[in-house]
Write a structure and sequence with these properties.
By secondary structure, the protein is mainly alpha-helical. The chain contains eight helices and no strands. The protein has helices at 14-45, 50-80, 94-121, 124-151, 162-191, 195-228, 239-255, 314-329.
Length: 330
């Protein structure tokens, strides 16, 4: 009679080795679904210049590749390696879809915001400084991924300096972007005299602070877990959401131009603030789909009627109501 084989050894801290990977992949898939909806809405509502559309679709393709690689990770750890605890710490393709691809995606989004900062401020040194930090964190992520592939053990990566530089650089770049954009947009808001323009700027400021602060917090949390708990894989969970957060941040900024279905004229404010002059005449662009990657905010037409006050927007409001009624009837 055959002797039954011994049961495989299961370490008492098994949850600290399995839960981070599992939860990280779940967050990754969830954010990929949100990103897919964001890209679809962008495709339906906007027709920006080819540069902006190339940026959006390139990021989405990279995110799809990263999601496929992360799915290969989870299959390797929990399907191919079922019952073998040593497989849970194997790197497999994790160094490719986390530090390498996440660093690349972060650099693309951060450089886009750096370009916006340069347009808004006209300060080349500030934009170059933030851009160099962004490129440095991407290079550190690439080096960290290559070294992690060579080591092959996720619990032995804390001896490396490159992952720490990657996470610290990403957090620093996000913080600088959030602070710079907030200051620049706040100054523009202080110069504006129109409620509509102030409202748009207020929304952009809030989105900038919220999105960049969230991505910076995730990078800092990952760095803390990486340094504090080197024997576990807790640091694997947050970075799986990091790349998707960057892409969703960009799409949220773009799709923030959308308005109600029958208020298309107000939905076409562009993705920036170029040529904004709040002291004189303000006109609105009533095109159905925007085709400009410049930086401007579009507001309703307001002109001086010669009596020292601005013309009422009542006529424009009534016209919008009539257009909406005609559309419903058709």
């Amino acid at each position: 009679m055959a002797t039954p084989s011994a049961a495989p050894f299961i370490p008492p801290n098994i949850m600290l080795l399995t839960a981070p990977q599992l939860l990280g992949i779940m967050f990754n898939w969830g954010l990929w679904g949100i990103l897919t909806v964001q890209v679809y809405l962008y495709y339906l509502c906007f027709e920006d210049s080819w540069r902006i559309r190339t940026l959006v679709w390139s990021l989405y393709i990279l995110e799809c590749i990263q999601t496929a690689l992360s799915s290969a990770d989870i299959i390797h750890w929990f399907a191919f390696g079922w019952g073998r605890a040593e497989v849970l710490t194997e790197a497999y393709v994790n160094p490719i879809d986390l530090p390498i691809m996440a660093g690349l995606i972060a650099m693309i989004v951060q450089l886009y915001f750096t370009w916006r900062i340069w347009i808004l401020s006209g300060s080349a040194p500030l934009a170059v400084f933030i851009g160099l930090i962004s490129i440095a964190q991407a290079v550190a992520g690439l080096v960290a991924g290559i070294m992690a592939l060579q080591i092959g053990d996720l619990t032995q990566l804390t001896v490396l300096i490159a992952p720490k530089l990657w996470l610290a650089g990403a957090a620093l770049a996000d913080t600088l972007i959030a602070v710079s954009m907030t200051i620049l947009l706040y100054r523009a808001r202080k110069r504006s005299l129109l409620p509509k323009t102030n409202y748009i700027l207020k929304r952009i400021i809030a989105l900038t602070i919220e999105t960049n602060s969230l991505s910076a917090s995730i990078a800092i949390l990952t760095l803390i877990l990486f340094v504090r708990f080197p024997e576990y894989t807790l640091f694997i969970c947050p970075p799986y959401a990091l790349g998707k957060l960057y892409s969703n941040t960009l799409l949220v900024i773009f799709n923030n131009r959308m308005a109600m279905p029958f208020d298309r004229s107000q939905a076409q404010a562009s993705i920036g603030l170029k040529g904004m002059n709040t002291n004189n005449v303000h006109t609105s662009d009533h095109s159905s789909r925007i085709q400009d990657d410049g930086i401007k905010i579009t507001v309703l037409r307001q002109t001086d009627n010669g009596r020292g006050d601005l013309e009422s927007q009542h006529d424009s409001h009534e016209m919008n109501k009539r257009i909406s009624l005609d559309v419903r009837r058709s």
